[in-house]
Amino acid sequence: MKQSLNLVPCYRPSIMTDIPDRNTPFYWSTFFLRSLLDSRVQHIVISPGSRSTPLTMAAAAHPELDKHVILDERSAAFTALGIGKATNKPAILICTSGTAAANYMPAVIEARKSGLPLIIASADRPPNLRATGANQAIDQLKLFGDYPVLFHEVGEPILQKEDITRLEMLAGQAVTAATQQGGPVHLNFPFRKPLEPTSDFVRRT
User: Fold this and answer.
1) Residue 167 · residue 32 · CB < 8 Å
2) What's the CATH architecture for 19-129+137-204?
3) What is the pLDDT of residues 138-171, one digit of tens each?
4) How far apart are CA 10 and CA 33, in angstroms?
5) Which of 107, 139, 168, 188 is the most buried (most CB within 10 A)?
6) 127: which residues sit within 8 A by CB, 6+ positions away?
7) What pTM value is reported for the model?
8) Measured between alpha carbons, how far is 27 from 12 in angstroms, rounded to an integer?
């Protein structure tokens, strides 16, 4: 990804009542990725998909992050694992909802058995679409069983100060667990449609 995206305008966490709902998932995701940068996480490996659009666009909005776009989820997962082995810092794996994340399973097992840091940020259908027959809606809670050293259902985006603070804390906890305990972390992000922010909220630079 050679182009980057910038927020327009730059809001502060305590002043968010004027952000349209459509921009909430993207803005929420930028807080998460900024917090990962604060923990010196550098690499994002993206398996493109629709439901993960907010996370993908948020990654593109940060020129400091090294983005790797790999269509095949299994290859993406082992690329991220290799980055973790080489740097001793977890790479972030981003994927869409449904069976996409299931393709990460071999790398998740390898990460746990080898003690290698890895963080998976899987997009998911919101709770109102789960167990309803919705397309690409599988049970992603504890999808990888007991192999992750940490699993957390992040919850739907809420732009209140306490929720942003918890999200930023979660990013730090994920990095700490992946590096100090040595293994994969799975964070599950439910998003409602629309998934793309409005054009006047994001500009290309």
Assistant:
1) yes
2) 3-Layer(aba) Sandwich (3.40)
3) 677 888 999 999 999 999 999 999 999 999 999 9
4) 15
5) 107
6) 156, 190
7) 0.86
8) 11
